[in-house]
Structure prediction request, 503 residues.
Amino acid sequence: MEFTYEGRKATSPAVRAAAGDTTAREGVPRRQPAREPTAHTYARALPVVPVRARGMTIEGADGRRYLDCLSGGGTLALGHNHPVVLEAIRKVIDSGAPLHVPDLATPVKDAFVTELFRTLPPGLADRAHVRFCGPAGTDAVATALRLVRAATGRTGVLAFTGAHPAPAGGSPDATRAAPSDAQTTLLPYPQDYRCPFGIGGERGAELAARWTETVLGGPATGVPLPAGMILEPVQGDGGVLPAPDAWLRRIRRLTADRSVPLIVDETLTGVGRTGAFWAVEHSGVTPDAMVLSAAIGGSLPLTVVVHRDDLDDRAPGAGTFPGNQLAMAAGTAVLGHVRENGLAAHAAGLGARMLDRLRTLAGELACVGEVRGRGLMIGIELVDPEGGDDGSDRGTTGPGPAVAPDGTAGGRPRPAAPGLAAAVRRECLRRGLIIDLSGPCASVVRLLPPLTTTDEQAGVVLDRLADALQTAARDRFAHRRTEQPRHPHHAPPRPAGGTEPPG
Prediction:
């Protein structure tokens, strides 16, 4: 049988699969684990073989449809295959323009930079330069750090625990991007539930700021003045932790007073995700440089560093792929669509409504330690309400106590529950919902729905998530109770009812 795809004979396996050849698709789940490493990957955690996608919906090779709250790891601000993105890509292809060039001036690049500058915080846009990097976020981080080192003549870097992206050792990529003689100092990032000082709230953020102020005190502290500081306004891989606005403003004052350039990493938070076009705008802070990636490429690989003109240097080299014309065209379309249609404001309103409902649900489930987030970047931290007696759910970070819902100091936070989080992800997938996990112990359910998500879609997402949470918690903890050692003279307890997962 001969297939055609957009007028072409479908002879290769890839084209046959795109054309709908189920024979070409059915072996994918079998071949993937045999060919790829056993390291943790999305493909292993989410055994879905996507063949079509539109907006928030993915269709798998098995014909099932899923609501996607992963959004390509935050790269899909408008969801899958948005018409404005497809049109922008087709125009470049049909024009005969080169698909990739070195770091040359092109009409496509000029349009992207012009649209990007329209969205930047005013204090930065007025005197900004833009530098295109390689396709990975680590390339942009390395470029930003190189710039501040060249400008200051210093080598050290200040970063924060839980930063994105993080290697297995837990340090941010600032460590990997630094030369061998550079020192990276990790600072405490303020949060409530697992406050590093056991206090949370305004007092915890105050202590985190004081710690930073001490480190920035100069050689007397044992830490030389650094070349720069890099932070996320909302930590993504750290567990969806929004930085308090007052804390961020204080950090900006501390760095500015000491001529330490502040780099803000907007890889996961940019392009309207948090309810402002750039998350740093919530606090009114103007950074010295911004690392931009993920959504700015309209689903295609693109990273840039936007920085103050006085941080410029003449060091050659921007990686192998600084001139991806398709990504720039797609990025221009996304930036313009988000700006012109007020999608950041939509994300703020819809995210607030989703957080309200999730917090109501959290009051009914002891396994939810905290619900937090900003805009459509939402985290639900799962904990073990029974203390974790099977060894798999241990991993409390921070000494506690946590902050209670009324803002006062509460009891110690429960141990993290990565096993439960993995079970929730599986239950979500069974219900046609794709979610992500984050946090140091992978115990935080992370939702990154597209900015185009409707109230109706959000309601379906929350219904499926609530059902998955309730089922996973009931099954996990009921099973544990039946497995606990019992005194030989005691009659065995009756199994908890309703523990069977739905068919």
Observations:
- Residues 1-10, 166-181, 389-410, 485-503 have pLDDT under 50 and may be disordered.
- The longest strand covers residues 368-374.
